[in-house]
Amino acid sequence: MDKATSGIHHISAIVGHPQENVDFYAGVLGLRMVKQTVNFDDPGTYHLYFGNNEGKPGTIITFFPWANAFQGVIGDGQVGVTSYAIPKGALGFWKDRFEKFKISYTTEKRFSEESIRFRDPHGLVLEMVERDEGETNTWTFGAITPDVAVKGFAGATLYSSQPDQTALLLERVMGLERIGEEGEMIRFQSSAQIGNVIDLKKIPGKRGQMGVGTVHHIAWRAEDDQDQLEWLEYVRSNGYGVTPVRDRNYFNAIYFREHGEILFEIATDPPGFAHDESPGKMGEMLMLPEQYENMRNGIERKLIPIEVRELE
């Protein structure tokens, strides 16, 4: 059996103060908060989801905010750079916006694409790159209109402690196509229109340390529950230890750590984020899984209050 994921489902990272996180991703980058819930393994901590207007797979970045937690170190065993796709011609708008908010950035060029690279308030490394591919994001927030809005992920850059092993996994197990090599990067591509480009750093460096400002895991797409069960058996048959299926309310998930020490997840596209809130109201309220609903008052008292606000 051969399988191929269509691309990135979501990327999850650890950050600091939750209001700073909301201000940056909603207020500065203009992403929609599509869900505010809690870490199912630690209900005293938020799990915040940001994406496009519909919260589609390939657009979702999620955060575990831990105020006053220790700073992590970006390195091998992690996603080193998270890349966003913006419409053609939008790069100038974002440069102006970053200057307005005093966000430092550098201009990069890789595989004939110009991008701008910057960090969020907690140290996470991000990029924006112009791409024709991908649906227009119809979410409008402040000065950010659909003609310049982030569409979703362009892709990600992986830092592996064993790049050769990670390359084999991406190509032979995950089903991505190796499409190029430039400098210290190998580029792979999947079939989706968004979240479809993975760059792999060829030379290992220092091992990363998990903490604030680092990516916890990258999740790949499974079409549905049956497809995910096939993935579970397929990944296991290729010599990786895989968790049982875990219910994350908005998708089901399995996890494995590949040989380069990066934590991979395979997540189902359905049911999505609108099954417990109407599409127009997503992200406005704290939504708890059923097992924590009877603890709502205590959980809400423990969580730091947050709000989505314009920073114009």
Q: What would you say this structure looks like, in words?
A:
This protein has about 300 residues and is of the alpha+beta class. The protein has a single domain (about 10-300), classed as 2,3-Dihydroxybiphenyl 1,2-Dioxygenase, domain 1 (Roll), CATH 3.10.180.10. It has helices spanning about 20-30, 90-100, 165-175, 225-235, 295-300, and strands at about 10-15, 30-40, 40-50, 60-65, 80-85, 105-110, 115-120, 125-130, 150-160, 175-180, 185-190, 195-200, 215-220, 245, 250-255, 265-270. An 8-stranded mixed beta sheet has the order 2-3-4-1-13-16-15-14. About 45% of the residues are buried. This is Ring-cleaving dioxygenase MhqO. Keywords: Dioxygenase, Oxidoreductase. It comes from Cytobacillus firmus.
List keywords for this structure.
eight-stranded mixed β-sheet; 16 strands; 312 residues; globular; single chain; alpha+beta; 34% strand; Glyas_Bleomycin-R_OHBP_Dase; 2,3-Dihydroxybiphenyl 1,2-Dioxygenase, domain 1
